[in-house]
Write a structure and sequence with these properties.
Strand order of the largest sheet of chain A: 5-6-7-10-9-8
Oligomer: homodimer
Distance between the termini of chain A: 43 Å
CATH superfamily of the largest domain in chain A: Chorismate lyase-like
Number of strands of chain A: 11
Structural class of chain A: alpha+beta
Helix content of chain A: 25-40%
CATH topology of the largest domain in chain A: Chorismate lyase
CATH class of the largest domain in chain A: Alpha Beta
Order of helices and strands of chain A: HEHHEEEHEHEEHHEHEEE
CATH architecture of the largest domain in chain A: 3-Layer(aba) Sandwich
Chain lengths: 245, 245
Amino acid sequence: MVQKKMVERQIGVALWRQIADRIRLSISNGDYDKTGMVPPEIKLASQFGVNRHTVRSALASLADEGLVEAIQGRGTMVRRKERLSFPISRRTRLSQGLSNQVRNIRSILLAHDELPATSEIAAALNLPLGTPLIRMDTTSAADDRPVSYATSYFPAARFPDMAEHFGRLGSITKSFAAHGLPDYIRISTEIIARHADADELATLKLSAGAIVLETVAVNADPDGVPVQFSRSRFAADRVTLKLET
Amino acid sequence: MVQKKMVERQIGVALWRQIADRIRLSISNGDYDKTGMVPPEIKLASQFGVNRHTVRSALASLADEGLVEAIQGRGTMVRRKERLSFPISRRTRLSQGLSNQVRNIRSILLAHDELPATSEIAAALNLPLGTPLIRMDTTSAADDRPVSYATSYFPAARFPDMAEHFGRLGSITKSFAAHGLPDYIRISTEIIARHADADELATLKLSAGAIVLETVAVNADPDGVPVQFSRSRFAADRVTLKLET
DNA sequence: CCGAAATGTCTATTAATGTAGACAACCATA
DNA sequence: TATGGTTGTCTACATTAATAGACATTTCGG
């Protein structure tokens, strides 16, 4: 049988990478759940219409990610297949939404500083241009696998100790609470997809060439006053964004 | 000045493609709006830390997409920069949401057939396994640029003439109305990002290696009875999904 | 109308990617 | 324990991607 969806040449994406992406997708789709094994290299090679060595490069890259493990004489085993489902709702709370999917979630403050609002952020937060903001770069890992990398901005006047609190509490929700804001809602979200840049590859521990889902969101207090502007990047092959209504 | 976000080697994605992706992003971010020109090749080459010829390959690919145009002696001009903002809400209506962003929207029925419900779709639509469904493949273009490619499933018993209506009306909303359903709401949406397959590349007229945003949604009538299961794919570099609450 | 700055074209070379084939090592099982 | 099916390793070669440099061509401003 000839594979319907062949791999493509001369598009600036190496064949082994295209094949690795396709196998990764098959794994997360559960295509190999019956046996728990990836098809033999020779079979994959003929399906994709490439040489066996090219398939081996793809599998090597997946093995490097920890997704599969090859065993000489037996075959190549699927080791991991999760794709986290990431809820997005008016009350999006990272830890809460993932808590029933993973054992532990850890958020880390990578960096923080104070800077004046740019026009984009000032408009989103409904603040005058140049208003002082706290900026925080944070990353979250589920069961020690990085899933998100976010840059958040908060009005410095209202939330002067955001970074300190986050560093201690590891949670935006708790940091807001420490500033006397017990609840907040999401008032807008935009989503795009693109290739990860070097910074994101490193932070999210992605194999290069990977895709990120980027959400740009504004959160507000119960009175509708914006309190947070954030850009979050998710490893596209590890998460599904699930909108809740 | 050295560019902070360098380009990466040996990752299975050709440098010219990484650079093309980055320039495309800069264009849609409006980075070149002031002059309407992409920086000179030599400057780009030094910023990305590559040879000028590599930058030329990237620009040639963008020119091929119609995004830029090089003029000897002058420079390289931005020709197009749009990124459509695609609203997703409980009452998502394609034509309505885009109407103030483009001049015309055209939807086409590519194919349709009838088939029994698979377990995934049966569960989503709350129907018994094997229930007859109408399947429709449709594509939409905004100002003659393809933006979405969707496969939708409807219960055949309730909406027997969905495909005929759509072929004539070019709208899901109107086709539902023709079946006596004036309103419907979205009850779930999931979003993932991945590389486009060959079929999607062709239908969405993407340059190969491109990324698609895929939404999997279930729509229901006002009583909450599911009426549509759909898988839509968007050209990631042409749209932003905008969640509305 | 000259010169600076930009893109266009050509040649040559090196590095990365992909193909081809042979054979070793290992595993399961008949 | 022999056999078939699998992954691991090696060599050789072809094709594509990237670098390097030289110079032509075009545009624009002084």
